[in-house]
Amino acid sequence: MTEGERLLLTERDHAHALLGDAEVHEVIAKIPPSRRKVISTHDAFGYFASAYGIEFIAPVGVSTESEPTARGIAAIIRQIKDEKIPAVFLENISDPRLIRRIAAETGARVGGTLYSDSLTGEKGDAPTYIDMVRHNIRALTSALAN
Predict the structure, then answer these.
(1) CA distance 132 to 127
(2) What CA–CA distance (Å, rounded) separates 81 from 127?
(3) What is the DSSP letter of 96?
(4) How far apart are CA 94 and CA 36, in angstroms?
(5) Prediction pTM value
(6) What's the gap between Cα 49 and its chain centre?
(7) What is the pLDDT tens value at each position of the chain, 146 positions in all?
(8) Which of 59, 72, 104, 128 is in the most buried spot, having the most CB atoms within 10 Å?
(9) Topology at the third CATH level for domain 3-144
(10) What are the residue boundaries of the structural domains of the chain, listed by start?
């Protein structure tokens, strides 16, 4: 594990202490369970998914370097339509074209940008891990709660 990864994990643990798991669960509880499904570019939210009961579906998988298959994209489009998933999300580290194409094909709206493997600069939406979690929670609840 690199020093940067250790620092991010330490900051994550500190963020959860400051935010409070109960606060995050309370906010997520406002999203109906049937709407707690998120389409994002790659599978970068495993911890968030298991901690807060949100299902993340990703056409690319774990690595942003891999390419989605036509079959995989078609399956996600079917799933969005069948399950009436209301929104898809861009990621700060991924090319937005795939998610925008999926949104156009399904009628799901783009619910905003989620921050995953990278923080923003000091003046951005997610300069710290705490800010990143808060930003992602706001984006998710805004797009999925209604």
Answers:
(1) 7
(2) 35
(3) T
(4) 22
(5) 0.77
(6) 9
(7) 566 555 555 666 655 555 667 778 888 898 999 889 989 887 778 878 888 888 988 887 655 566 778 888 899 999 999 999 999 998 888 889 989 999 999 999 999 999 887 788 889 988 888 788 888 888 998 998 86
(8) 59
(9) Rossmann fold (3.40.50)
(10) 3-144
